[in-house]
Structure formats: structure tokens, C-alpha cells
Amino acid sequence: MRTEIATLGEFGLIEHLTEGIEHQNASTVYGVGDDAAVLSYPAPKQVLVTTDILLEGVHFDLTYVPLKHLGYKAAVVNFSDIYAMNGVPRQITVTLGISKRFSVEDMEQLYAGIRLACEAYGVDIVGGDTTSSLTGLTISITCVGEADADKVVYRNGAKENDLICVSGDLGAAYMGLQLLEREKSALRGNTDVQPDFSGKEYLLERQLKPEARKDIIQKLTEAGIKPTAMMDISDGLSSELMHICKQSNAGCRVYEEHIPIDYQTAVMAEEFNMNLTTCALNGGEDYELLFTVPLSLHEQVQDIEGIRLIGHITKPELGCALITRDGQEFELKAQGWNPLK
Amino acid sequence: MRTEIATLGEFGLIEHLTEGIEHQNASTVYGVGDDAAVLSYPAPKQVLVTTDILLEGVHFDLTYVPLKHLGYKAAVVNFSDIYAMNGVPRQITVTLGISKRFSVEDMEQLYAGIRLACEAYGVDIVGGDTTSSLTGLTISITCVGEADADKVVYRNGAKENDLICVSGDLGAAYMGLQLLEREKSALRGNTDVQPDFSGKEYLLERQLKPEARKDIIQKLTEAGIKPTAMMDISDGLSSELMHICKQSNAGCRVYEEHIPIDYQTAVMAEEFNMNLTTCALNGGEDYELLFTVPLSLHEQVQDIEGIRLIGHITKPELGCALITRDGQEFELKAQGWNPLK
After folding, report:
1. pLDDT tens-digit map of A1-22
2. For residues B87 and B147, is the Cβ–Cβ distance under 8 A?
3. ipTM of the assembly?
4. For an engineered disulfide with A145, which of A82, A133, A285, B141 has Cβ 3.0 to 4.6 Å away?
């Protein structure tokens, strides 16, 4: 079934897609349907605002990304940015540019994913803008969150001797993308065959349905640990480490042997004849948390499941380097995702 | 001079464009450069959030819209939404999708316009996202503002017998667009000739460099007037009136003879052989304020320069209608800008 979007128009479509949305947060005073959403964040809360745009052909390929997954991911990557400030996401606005290729049913799928993510993370959809586009699909989401003023963690607070930690494992989302791209090439024009992804489900899930590390933020809070610097890994570990070091005026040493990598990622890298460490350092889209804590918290951090210590912060003049398994030192380079290169 | 954007990359470009930005608002705690911006809105302030997207080919045509003007307008239309809540805009995030056609110098122009608007309205640029696009330019701006909790004006508060007011005049931005489109057709392929716009400057300014009615909000506040309902006129008076009436569960009567129209708008409508009232009702992009006040405030509102009373709110069963100069009643229809029709 295909209903043309023009039959509903802008306001009809928004009404249809946001029907039955119930707000989950006390800070949401008024949502969709006016010139602006109205939120309430009394002190000592601070308001966090982040925004991300996804463009068809640049950030996603609808030949293998289901619209529902895309909606889920578009929301989650914004939540991830709020968690990376040590905050809690509360509201999003959803802005869509839609070409004629898409039907009302397509947008229902996309919104189903966005709404699922919002339910999973306790976030309210409070507004947005919907318009036509000449080519493809554009999704721009802005997320508002909150944090106590003294709990916000920036990128610029890493100090010499701080420990560098990451959550989860790295490189799997990138290998998932490689896998999907390979199957797309292999199956070009052949729509009868279904690709066989068995044994590689984790890689696909990491690429198509990433999660934000709400659990890690909760565990850190429960353990009374406030990182000195934090960000989420969207462009790749190397690139993000360099951001933290630049903004903290510091250097770092990261140990290859400590970088957490899943078994499936290693198998795929072997299959693709790719360097595994390079994939983990530069793959991107992991949406894991990268953070630093004072050396004195070594044991407390190590006790938290899902967190790995991968290195330490140094004086700035030592630069950013990877120590390989055989003890060699290589300068880190940000070879990750750069949408403008 | 043309510098390829790839020479700077995403972070280099953002750094370059946001260089030297100084925050003007106490509520801006931390701006560009982290996972999220950090804002502080202690009670009794409420936080207002609005977002707008502009897509090349749908919302603007760079053959006659200078990039600096486009940047200015993209920011101002968001401020207008915050004023329409009876609030004050404080921060924006700027998200750009940029195709290879554009150079660093182009983005400097665009940002110069955004920054000019921010200076004029006292708004801080606190973040955003910058990426490549396959086709054309995408600009998505989210604006955060504030209002005392008891001062926020929604669209849904209009009551029977309330007076309907508009600021400024209507239809000029639409006539400016018609004029630019005509010259574009006339000059196609002929780049030596400069079109003669003398005597039509107001129309062009309304289209290319609209302003948000900060002054009207200030005057209303000074006069102690809180509208019962308010919104800004972006899609056209008819469409916006119908929004207010629908959300307030009311009807309305608007008098053709009271709709404010500038002399230049009238001359151009004549020249284009267009119905002047239709242009004023459905033109769109005026960014004037449409609001309702209790009948008892009749004299106070009438005394404010730049505000015109154009009609009144009725019971819902009377519907929304225009009373023409000769006393006939026509049902209002939203024929204005609908990006999805």
C-alpha cells in the first residue's frame, strides 16, 4: 500500500505521525503543535543541546537500511551525544526533508523507529519541521537533555596520568557496513537471493541498530565516578582521542593489546584482509563512550563491567600515540569518517 | 578566490566559521566544540525550542538569493518562532549539508549572514553539525529561547470576541519572490544585464532579508498585554488563522479592508494582474505576528504603532471567513505555502 504524502500535506502528515505520543518527562511542558516546544529545567539542572543530520547517499543507503532502523539510529546517535556529556536525553525535535519517492507508509516506518528509540530511552518528541526535498531523504534531529550543573563532563578536562577508558568494543559497526556494502555489490540486480548473514548478526546490529550507552553512565554515577573528560565514539577512536587531547592540551598513549574488539569483528577483518587495529581505531559509528578518569580511580573503574582501560593521558609534548603489541610507537592519525573529505 | 572545503575538513571548517564568536547570553554556559552545548535556564524561565530546515531548490534559489542574505533569513525565521511564543531567542545550533559546488568562501558568506542576525537579535551560536551533501545546500537551524512560565503564549488560547491583530503588512515578501522569479526568467542566459528594481526595494527586502518582530513583543510587554493566542505568519495569514482557530476551537471573521498592505505590494499585484487580497492572505514568508487579545484591550492595542486590528474570534460553528469590502462572506482556505503539496 502506498499513500502519497501530498494527500495529507505537511500538517496532516505531522499529525498522523505524532498521533498518540505521550510525554514521559516532567520537563516537557508542551510538545508538537505550536511555534516552539516549551520545556522546564529548573536549577540546578543545565540544559544540553545537540544536533545531527543524516543525508541519504552520504550517511545511509536505503538499499540495505530499513527505514525503521534508520529512524531508530537517527534518534540514538543524538542520545549518545547527551550521555557523552554525562547527561540524560529528554526531548527531540525531528526535521525531515522528503522526496516524492517516499510514501506516508515509508514515513510511518521511519517514525516507528524514532518512536521506538524514544520509548526505549525515555525521550519525548516535542516538535520539528517537515518539508519536501528534491532528492532523497534528509533527517535532522536535535536532542535536548539535562545534567546537574556540577555533573557535566566536557572534552577538555583530561589531565596527565588520567586513565583512558572505553565502553563496549570497537570496529564492529564499520565491519557491518563493509559486509552490507559487499552484499549489495554481489546481489546487484539479483533481487531473488537473500544474503546469508548467519554468524554475523552482531556486526549488522552494531551498524543498523546501535545503542547509546545509557547503562555505562548509570554505572559510573552509581559508582560515584565523574570522568574528567568524555565523548562518544562516532568518527573513530583515533579521531576522538585526538579531540580530547587537543581540547585538554594533553597527549596520550593507547595500547593496541587493550583495545576491545569482538570476535566477529576479528573474523570479518581477516575475511576482508583488513588490519584489525586500523578498523578498531578508525571505523567509526561505534557510539561507545571514550572517557578519562584520575589514576586513583583505577580499581573502581576496572570493576565496572563493560569498561576497558586502554591507555593513559600524557604531557602534550609527547603527542598522541599507539603502542603496538611488539612495543613500537606509532603517532595516531585521525583517518576516521570525515564527511567533508 | 575559491578554497575547497575538503582542504579544511569538517572540524577545520567549523573552527574557521565560528572563530571569534563571543557569547552574549548568561544562559549560554558552553557553546561550539563538545558533544552538546550547555545552557542554564533557572526557574521561573521555561525553555523554548524550535527548528526549521531550508533546502536548496525547495525553499531558496541561489541564482538570486545571496548566501549572506540566506544565512540571515535562516536564522531570523527561527527567532520569529520564539517571539511568536512571547519569548526571547537566546541560542541556535546550525546544521549544514554542503555539496562540492560550494567553497569555504561561500560558507563564510552564509555564516556572515547567520552571525549578523545573531548579533542583531542577541543570540549565541552554540553548536551544530556540518557534513557533505550529494546535491545542493541544506540548512537546518534549531533555536532555543526563554520565557517566564506565565508569559508563554500558545496558539490555542483564543476566545470568542477576542480581537485579531497583525503586525506590519502582508503579502510583500510574496510579491518580492514573484519579482525575483520574473527577472530570473527574463534574464536567463543574459548575465550582462542587471535588473532594475528601483521603487521595489521594500518587496525585495521583505523577501531576502526579513526581520522578526522583536519590537512588537517588547511593545506588548511594555503595555502589559499578554495575547491569548499568537503565532508568526510564515505560511500565509489564512493558513495561520485557521491554525489558531482549530487549536482554540473557535471561528473567526476577518475584514478585507483592515488587512494591512504596503503601497509597493499593491502596485506589483496590479502589474502582475494578481488579486491583492489573495496575495496578502496566502503569500507567506511575512514573519509578522498574528495574535488575539481580549476585547477589553481594544484601545491599548490600537495605540501601539505597527499593529492592526483585522477581525475577531467567533464561536467555532461559524467557521473562518473573510468579509469583503462589499460585505460578502467567503470561507477562508489555506492556500498558502505547503511544501508537501
Report:
1. 888 888 887 778 888 888 888 8
2. yes
3. 0.90
4. A82
